[in-house]
Amino acid sequence: MSTRPAKETAVPPEIQTRLEAAGLRRTLATRAVLGLFLANPQGTLSHAQALASLNARGLDVNRVTLYRLLDRLAACGVLQRHADDGARTWRYGLVDTDEGLAPRFECDACHRQFRLTEASAPTQAVATDLFRRLAGMGHQGLRVEVAIHGTCASCVPGAGTNPEPLP
Fold it and tell me: How buried is 53 (Cβ within 10 angstroms: 0-12 exposed, 13-18 middle, 19+ buried)?
């Protein structure tokens, strides 16, 4: 008999593979946290927002456990972690596995992310050069993240458009 909740979000195979490779078990907390991010793939959450969302769903997750889980999910390449300088906290979002190395634009007001897929090829060329140079120095690069911060069109005062984040 299964004890899983009826509405559990399916974990994509590439995420499941990363979890297994990192030795992370699919505990209730892990499944619940993944569900938050899979339900809104372009969104980002701070630790406090994730904790509030989990509590609103009736899950009592220890805040330290959540910190550790978010960091472990980032370390195994399921989530990306970046600083939200305005709030002086970390924000987490799903790693975009489909678009290679596409730079992202993040609105500092609403925290939506927009992938700049048309910039993927030039960005990949720069990343390849950086990895090559690091390897020549004896270092092993793991990933490159390119982010541009600013204010999206829908958050700019007086803007009448409401563009959607890119998939």
Answer: middle
